[in-house]
Design goal:
Layout lengths: L4 H22 L5 E7 L18 H4 L5 E4 L12 E6 L10 E8 L7 E3 L1 H6 L4 H10 L1 E9 L8 E5 L8 E7 L6 E9 L5 E3 L1 E4 L2 E5 L6 E8 L5 E4 L14 E6 L4
Length: 256
């Protein structure tokens, strides 16, 4: 029996839909076209007052190859994420570009990234080409999300100086790893296992009033855009006598 025109059209649409879905899945690793600028200051590294809350640590993270982001900041969820960024001018730009970490929020003339001067120059083939890139100020780029890797570094937390033991706790998560976002954080008492969900104050800063008492187990939810998520529990606990300004090593490295 011959197929009707309507049936053929439906089958063709279904095939095209499946093809596009498969292409989209494959293109999670594809480059996206955009533009990038650089910080106008004379410091080669990042800013110490970034919107992610990293402070001075954010200026030197990843060797200073850091960036502010506009849409990719995502109300702070994008803080700590890593992107491969390469400019497209073959006269100046290398093929691989470099990996940057998001530490701030900002945009300039329809850009997705405002790179540190160090990172902006790092896209170039040579030192002379780097000087030419910096003189341009804004360049066309391609970028894609990549897995964060911080060799010899575990995920750590830095207790904010404004914390008030034992009534108020705020901390920033450093050295985020893998290719997923940290979308939720819990603190759990290690003795009775009661847990409390923290609030994202801004950027990578998590806070809670009346935090649980005793040694605290940290739980982090790693999520991606496809809905794949998993809770990760570090090896080390936050001590019961935590102190503002202190940094605690979680003993954890992840590749999710």
């Amino acid at each position: 029996m011959a197929l009707s025109i309507q049936t053929l059209a439906f089958l063709l649409a279904a095939v095209l839909f499946m093809h596009n879905q498969a292409h989209a899945a494959q293109c999670k690793d594809c480059f996206i076209h955009s533009r990038a600028a650089h910080y106008p200051n004379s410091d080669e590294k990042g800013t110490e007052t970034g919107a992610c809350g990293f402070g001075t640590f954010g200026a030197t993270l990843n060797g200073g190859d850091v960036s502010a982001a506009s849409e990719l900041y995502r109300n702070g969820v994008g803080c700590g994420a890593c992107y491969q960024v390469r400019c497209t001018n073959s006269n100046y730009c290398s093929d691989k570009g470099l990996t940057v970490v998001i530490t701030d929020q900002g945009s300039s003339d329809n850009t997705d990234f405002i790179l540190s001067r160090r990172a902006f120059a790092g896209m170039a083939q040579t030192k002379d080409a780097a000087a030419s890139l910096l003189a341009l100020g804004i360049v066309d780029i391609e970028y894609r999300r990549v897995s964060c890797r911080h060799p010899y570094q575990n995920i750590t937390i830095k207790i904010d100086e404004n914390s008030n033991y034992p009534f108020y706790l705020a901390f920033v998560i450093r050295y985020q790893q893998g290719q997923k976002d940290i979308t939720a954080v819990q603190l759990c008492e290690t003795e009775n296992f009661g847990c409390k969900l923290l609030e994202r104050s801004y950027g990578a800063v998590w806070t809670t009033a009346s935090p649980p008492r005793g040694p605290l187990s940290l739980r982090m939810l790693f999520s991606d855009d496809d809905g794949d998520e998993s809770w990760v529990v570090p090896v080390n606990n936050i001590p019961s006598d935590w102190k503002p300004g202190q940094t605690y090593d979680t003993g954890l490295q992840v590749d999710v």
